[in-house]
What does this fold into?
Amino acid sequence: MRVVQSRLSFATGLACSTALAGQLLASSPALAQEGPSGSAPEKPCTSGSGAYQWQLEKKFGLPQDGVQSTRDCIVIRRAQRFLGIKPADGKADLRTYRLVLVYEVRKNPNAQGKCPVRKYRVTCVDLNRQIMWVQTGRKIVFAPVPIRSGKDGYETRRGWHKIYLKRARHFSTIYNNAPMPHSQFFNGGQAFHGTYSDLFKSGSHGCVNMYAAHAKRLFKLLKVGDRVYVWGTKPGTGKRHGVYSDDVLIAQGFGSFGIAEDPTAEQPPTPQELEAALDE
It folds into this structure.
């Protein structure tokens, strides 16, 4: 294998992450540690196994043992750098896994046909997968981003809505003056707005939360009167489907059947296994 192949940045390979992982695995550990061409070698990647180790190993075509290896760490860290995740430490955490799922559907988030296609601009909110995007006709004008919708008892209202009020600086009048940067209201007190808290835990009081940077970009795009369409059910709210966890339901919504449940979860790696993996 040529040296230049092992030096490919993650940005050139995430679209076919399995192929990139194969390139890394085919190279020697020392070669895989090298950075992009002309740069200094990457720092050693030493993060231990994460809660979503097996899921990301499967996504990237790595050996599926649920135990972090040096090569696992390198591939996951490159994914994190490309996705803008900080710290990019190679840890297989929930945030990394969820952002990989979102990135995989970026070109055609409406493949399931759930969001109505119109000649005008429609903001699509998929509660099942906890993502949103904007489309005009079939053209995606705002790529999908992760969201956090209303929790049980405060569900985000489904159906058609319109943006009726925009406020770049807004604080909640109900919930202890909580900051709601770049708010765009579409149904009563429910709005799109940024948040600085963890998107992947619990839920909102009905608003569609997103990372602050995403909310700012969305604020610049949408206008008063723009249409919003909301459908689905946030995992963890309403009627539950069997015994599946929220993470399993979200992964299945992305078409990742059989990947959300870690077969090694009941058998956590021993300290000796972790040490051996990191010393390879």
The longest strand covers residues 139-146. The chain has a mean pLDDT of 79. The longest helix spans residues 70-83.
